[in-house]
Amino acid sequence: MKYRESGMPEVRYWESLFDIEAVLDVFGFDSSTGAVAELGCGYGTFTLPLAQRTGAPVHAFDIEPEMAAATRARAEAAGMANVAVSMRDVFAEGFGLDSGSCGACLLFNILHGEAPVPALCEAGRVVRPGGMVAVIHWRSDLATPRGPSLEIRPRPEQIVAWAEECGGLAVEGEPQCVGPWHFALRLRKL
Ligand SMILES: C[S@@+](CC[C@H](N)C(=O)[O-])C[C@H]1O[C@@H](n2cnc3c(N)ncnc32)[C@H](O)[C@@H]1O
Question: Is 123 touching ligand 1 by the criterion CB < 6 Å?
Fold first, then answer.
């Protein structure tokens, strides 16, 4: 099932809303990160820059064939062999990756969906001890040009409480603002 309010606007507009490198910097992604899983890659906005800086496999998943195709086409055009894109309903099927097989998992602009706790638990499952579940989402404390309805938009403290339900994930530091409209939250796998 496609998560509620997870449709995408036109690519250039979407990508004008982020400082992509600043987002990746907040999480410290670099050549030591290892493999990454990404739930809902969309246009590959973060997928390709991430794969570029880590040099490791990025397993990107999206339920929408158009989104998976867009990310795949960009990876192919860039000659990036370390991006693997799958069309998959992660809500229903999980990632299909081995437990502890990734150094990080991206949950970017997705935790307003139904059943955020299972999504966080699945992210925690695929990350190795010491790895990171990386979350960004639209802020709720100011007007934003996009983003899901305020009633379903999670705040950082809500995500931390959900992560506690999963167990094995500890919040690292304070949530940080990244760009004008997003916060970033780092959850470390124990
Ligand atoms: C708001 S977009 C965010 C895209 C990307 N994470 C970003 O921040 O640029 C959410 C994406 O999640 C995808 N999605 C929604 N439900 C999904 C599901 N059940 N499994 C996998 N992907 C899903 C949507 O198709 C969409 O591309």
Answer: no
Asked if residue 181 lies in contact with residue 17, where contact means CB atoms within 8 angstroms, the answer is yes
Neighbour count for residue 76 (Cβ, 10 Å): 12
Residue with tokens 């506690």: 164
Amino acid at 145: P
Provide the whole-model pTM: 0.98
Question: Which positions ≥6 away from 27 have C-beta within 8 Å?
Answer: 104, 132, 134, 184, 186
Indicate the top mutation candidate among 50, 62, 183 to test ligand 1's pocket, ranked by most ligand atoms within 8 A of CB. 62
Terminal-residue alpha carbon distance, the chain: 30
User: Ligand 1 centroid vs 30 CA: distance in angstroms?
Assistant: 24
Instruction: Report how far residue 43's alpha carbon sits from residue 4's, in angstroms, rounded to the nearest whole number.
Output: 18
Structure tokens, 17 = 């809303």
- Domains in the chain and their CATH numbers? 11-189 (3.40.50.150)
pLDDT in tens, 34-84: 999 999 999 999 999 999 999 999 999 999 999 999 999 999 999 999 999
